[in-house]
Amino acid sequence: MSTETAAAAGHAVASPPADWAQARSRVHAVGLAAVLPVTARPLAETDGLTLAEPLTTRTDLPAFPTSSVDGWAVRGAGPWRVVGRVLAGSTPPALTEDGTTVEIATGAMVPEGTTAVLRIEESDRTPDDRVVGTPRGTPEWRQPGEEAYAGEQLLPAGTAVDPAVIGLAASCGYDTLPVRPAPRAALLVFGDELLTSGPPAAGRVRDALGPSLPAWLRRYGCEIRPSDVIGPVEDTLPAHVAALRKALADADLVCTTGGTMHGPVDHLHPALEELGAEYVVNTVAVRPGFPMLLARLTGADGRVRFVAGLPGNPQSAIVALVSLVAPLLAGLQGRQLPELPHATLAEPVPGRGDHTHLALVRLDRVAGTAHPVRHVGSAMLRGLAGADGFAVISPGGTGEPGSRVPVVPLPLRSGERAS
């Protein structure tokens, strides 16, 4: 039994909380070691998935010379006798005689023997129906391989598939792509004190994480269905074990909310011990969000699954999400751990002693500055709703105005685009 497992089981041995940056790297590496298997999907079904192999060109791009304008493909000097028309989607006969031309449409294949393409708006017709004009000095067609040569790598494995990638793959002639599928996630909400409808009252609070965490998980690339969200789970050890066992049967990742401490109704650690889980990270030296964990289990089928224990306080839960869950999911999908962008603090941000402080900030992307927001208590969500991410204040330090600090971005809201 590891020291972390022993501590979780209530024994005297305890491990210090993991350094935040090291925990982030560790869970990403663990995710990569359990990367999801490759599957081939039709292009239309790949949005949001991850390239499992480099995207390479199957032919030159363009595959053949194509006209970039509407006009005339001519051979030799003019005036030119019209001998045909070339439209996109056909293979034209060669121009074999000087003084001849074919009308050509934008995107059409340029006939062999063409010496120039004359723009339609810069041409004229003689009384005997010949074409006259002066072609421009630069070719008015796209050369084969102008965008890429056959076999050239366009995108590396690990690239997130988006509409632009889908379009590029289609232009290369792909009908399917080898991808890493979306991780399947489930959510277990712990806490008898939680209400699932109506306003808080009579000592009970409204569950904010059950409705919101699935949306966060989807933005990190997970598949999670309404039936995958369970809770509140009864505050007993048998109920926790049963809920975890059921969720782990189908999910690659089970997130839980609450129960990450060692109070009288905190059953997550004993439940994980009963299931034979191994801790990857058990508590992280970060504020808010300190009592978070990631555990790993291997099923009877040999497949590795994960349990992420998120604190019950809503903002702390999101800190755990960006600290442990997001790096894990990047690894499971075969993606690199994203390098954190930096911003200049516009106002002071306090440190949190020997813990990393993740401070909610709003970004001014034009000025490149980060502005702390208000209402940032562990149990509050008001500040989160107006924030763009978390400024990272290192242990033992403070965030002084004008200093450059890393920022953990929140996943894009629907309709937003990365700047």
TrEMBL record:
Species assigned in the record: Micromonospora avicenniae
GO term, biological process aspect, one: Mo-molybdopterin cofactor biosynthetic process
Record-given protein name: Molybdopterin molybdenumtransferase
Transferase as UniProt keyword: yes
InterPro entries (UniProt xref): MoaB/Mog-like_dom_sf, MoaB/Mog_dom, MoeA-like, MoeA_C_domain_IV, MoeA_C_domain_IV_sf, MoeA_linker/N, MoeA_linker/N_sf
Family, similarity comment: Belongs to the MoeA family.
GO molecular function, one term: metal ion binding
Domain of life: Bacteria
Catalyses which reaction(s): adenylyl-molybdopterin + molybdate = Mo-molybdopterin + AMP + H(+)
Segments for region (Disordered): 124-143, 395-419
Residue ranges of the TM segments: none
Enzyme superclass (EC): transferase
Record function comment: Catalyzes the insertion of molybdate into adenylated molybdopterin with the concomitant release of AMP.
CDD domains: MoeA (cd00887)
Reported cofactor(s): Mg(2+)
Domain (MoaB/Mog) ranges: 186-331
Cellular component annotations (GO), alphabetically ordered: cytosol
Record pathway: Cofactor biosynthesis; molybdopterin biosynthesis
